[in-house]
Every structure is written in C-alpha cells, then in structure tokens.
Design goal:
Ybab, Chain: A, alpha+beta, 2 helices, 115 residues
Length: 115
C-alpha cells in the first residue's frame, strides 16, 4: 500500500516538473524563428515558435496598386509556408525540453499543452 502512495507522489512530482519544463519551453519558443519566401524571394515572412508573424519583407517592385491581388496572394503564401516550416521545430523543441521527465510514449503529442 505504501509503495503505491510513493509511486503516486513520484508521478505527481514528475507532472509538476513536466508542467514547469513545458512553461519554460513555451516561453523559449519566441526565440525559434523560421523565414519562408514566395514569388522567388519577392516576399519573405518570418514567424516564431509562438506562431506569431514577426517580420514581413516585400520587394519594392511588388508595391504597385494594380498588383494588389498578386501581392496579397504572395504574402499569404509566404506566411503559411513559414508556419508549416516551423511546426517541426516547435515539436522538436518541446520534446527536447521534456526529455527524461516522462517515458517516451510513441504518438504522444505534447503540442496540446500549448493552448
């Protein structure tokens, strides 16, 4: 009986440790960035691991009133590509931050902790 109680306390300690590490890892996500481009480099978007757009660079040649629709499409494409590209970096960062706290469970996705 006492063994189970000790196991339970140990598990609760691990969960607290996991929560602390996840919080720290989430705070660090702002330092992870990814830049993607569209239009052959005419539009560049940089996002961070907290899924925020932090920089947008638009080539001067694209800024013409009659090209507004194309410019909007290129911006959307660059931003979406940057978000797609940063996803694996976020997962890798969170896995590394929680390494050794929980057993490695295949398929365990910790990104749910981020919301």
């Amino acid at each position: 009986m006492f063994g189970n109680m000790a196991d339970m306390m140990g598990m609760m300690g691990k969960m607290k440790d996991l929560q602390a590490r996840m919080k720290e890892a989430q705070d660090q996500l702002s330092t992870i960035t990814e830049t993607a481009e569209s239009g052959g480099g005419l539009v560049k978007a940089t996002v961070n691991g907290q899924k925020a757009l932090i920089s947008l660079d638009i080539d001067q040649d694209l800024i013409k009133p009659d090209d507004k629709e194309m410019l909007q499409d290129l911006i959307v494409a660059a931003v979406n590509r940057a978000f797609d590209n940063i996803e694996p970096k976020i997962k890798a960062h969170l896995q590394k931050a929680t390494e050794g706290v929980l057993p490695n469970i295949p398929g365990l996705d910790l990104s749910g902790f981020m919301k």
